[in-house]
Description:
By secondary structure, the protein is mainly α. It is built from 4 helices and no strands. Helix 2 runs antiparallel to helix 4. The chain is rod-shaped and about 80 Å long. It starts with a helix and ends with a helix. About 5% of the residues are buried.
Amino acid sequence: xxxxxxxxxxxxxxxxxxxxxxxxxxxxxxxxxxxxxxxxxxxxxxxxxxxxxxxxxxxxxxxxxxxxxxxxxxxxxxxxxxxxxxxxxxxxxxxxxxxxxxx
Length: 103
């Protein structure tokens, strides 16, 4: 394997670059938001509705708890966006280096 890599460095860099770019493209379209709610989101909405009804029946209204799920989803979106940018940069770098490297 190492001998093949030494003989075909340009090809290996090109293949690595194309793989990075394809993975970034697949992750980009896979991570797009869906039109409908998932089962977990429906269940979370039902639980929130029931908790709101139970707290209003108690008389006093406690302060609203922080929405950790929404914060978590926003953090995941930011991390995925940064990861995709890094993958595209790495893929373009490997692909470009495969074409520009002198013998």
